[in-house]
């Protein structure tokens, strides 16, 4: 859990999340899944559980609240065109708007290398529908379904007397959900890298790629860094040091990742995101993401976006993974709430994202 921090208003801040989405599509999934029936997990219930777990709100995303905007392009390799008719997988350069963030509901939280990091992207091919994707750096999601998610958020409830979660409640969640143990252990042993630039970001959920003939191929994917990977520096620190390092890296040179698709094997669980897939599964290098500019969310191009994972183009469809509907519905409700709230300035200000004067002069 991220540490407690204080923002400009002096309010206490705390933990957790995911982020954003459009209404009609999400409501359709919610209705079809029975979320709006009595005694089911609803959007408002999830938002209340996030609030009780320390989500700051007040105009910010209910989760992954601290972030920056990035822009660049995606260049397809053509290798995935045989399994998907999506425009992004053809050999062309596609403009991208994205966002890096920390997976906490606190917009002024102090950067911590162990906090979940996220990469969210909006691919905008010319003359074709867009695609939005939201990825995290843990390799697997330690939640099986909507009830698991609700139980987990409830276990993270902040005790007003201590300002912290109750360790007994957290332990009880683990004991009551033994089927999630393997995923939690996998994530606990992941490599913690030095920053956003050298981290790998995973889709977590499974999707189906649709080919020209209608064939469907189940995949998960990861954005794998081209930059050399270095372990987290225990001596590094500062409230915003991870973002400051990302900003410096992008100003120094464009950052790149390979989009690596993992094709589900015969024994892989496609619709359960808590299940680890086999190490020997087929992979496809679908192309290269290049990010060349960074901006503050105060006026940046990603600020008004929701990175709903169910905004999919022809050639990519959702699997039956129930967490996909959960994420889409939560993003929709989060977006609706923050759209009607007055927002304080971001922790990462426009001035912080500017290139150093010497570099600006050199480029001009």
From TrEMBL:
Q: Which UniProt keywords apply?
A: Heme, Iron, Membrane, Metal-binding, Oxidoreductase, Peroxidase, Transmembrane, Transmembrane helix
A cellular component term from Gene Ontology for this protein is:
cytoplasm
Q: Which cofactor does it need?
A: heme
PROSITE patterns, from UniProt?
Answer: CATALASE_3
- EC number(s): the record gives 1.11.1.-
Gene Ontology terms: biological process: hydrogen peroxide catabolic process; response to hydrogen peroxide
Q: Name the protein family.
A: Belongs to the catalase family.
Q: What is this protein called?
A: Catalase-related peroxidase
Please tell me the species this chain comes from.
Acetobacter cerevisiae
């Amino acid at each position: 859990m991220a540490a407690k921090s204080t923002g400009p208003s002096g309010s206490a801040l705390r933990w957790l999340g995911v982020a954003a989405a459009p209404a009609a599509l999400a409501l359709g999934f919610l209705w079809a899944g029975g979320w709006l029936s009595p005694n089911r997990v609803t959007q408002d219930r999830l938002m209340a559980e996030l609030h009780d777990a320390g989500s700051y709100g007040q105009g910010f995303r209910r989760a992954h609240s601290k972030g920056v905007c990035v822009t660049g392009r995606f260049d397809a390799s053509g290798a995935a065109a045989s399994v998907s008719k999506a425009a992004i997988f053809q050999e062309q350069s596609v403009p991208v708007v994205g966002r890096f963030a920390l997976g906490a509901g606190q917009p002024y939280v102090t950067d911590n290398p162990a906090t979940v990091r996220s990469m969210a992207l909006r691919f905008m091919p010319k003359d074709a529908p867009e695609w939005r994707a939201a990825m995290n750096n843990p390799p697997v999601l330690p939640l099986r379904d909507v009830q698991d998610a609700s139980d987990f958020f409830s276990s993270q409830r902040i005790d007003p007397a201590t300002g912290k979660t109750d360790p007994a409640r957290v332990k009880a969640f683990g004991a009551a959900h033994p089927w999630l143990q393997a995923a939690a252990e996998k994530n606990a042993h992941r490599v913690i890298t030095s920053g956003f630039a050298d981290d790998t970001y995973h889709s977590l959920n499974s999707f189906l790629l649709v080919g020209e003939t209608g064939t469907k191929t189940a995949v998960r994917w990861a954005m794998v860094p081209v930059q050399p990977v270095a372990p987290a520096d225990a001596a590094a620190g500062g409230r915003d040091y991870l973002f400051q390092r990302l900003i410096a890296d992008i100003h120094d040179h464009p950052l790149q990742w390979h989009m690596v698709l993992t094709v589900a094997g015969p024994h892989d669980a496609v619709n359960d995101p808590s299940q680890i897939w086999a190490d020997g599964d087929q992979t496809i290098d679908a192309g290269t993401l290049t990010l060349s500019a960074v901006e503050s969310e105060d006026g940046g191009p990603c600020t008004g976006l929701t990175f709903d994972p169910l905004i999919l183009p022809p050639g990519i469809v959702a699997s039956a993974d129930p967490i996909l509907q959960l994420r889409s519905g939560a993003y929709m409700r989060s977006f609706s709430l923050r759209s009607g709230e007055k927002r304080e300035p971001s922790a990462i200000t426009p001035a912080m994202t500017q290139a150093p004067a010497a570099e600006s002069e050199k480029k001009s």
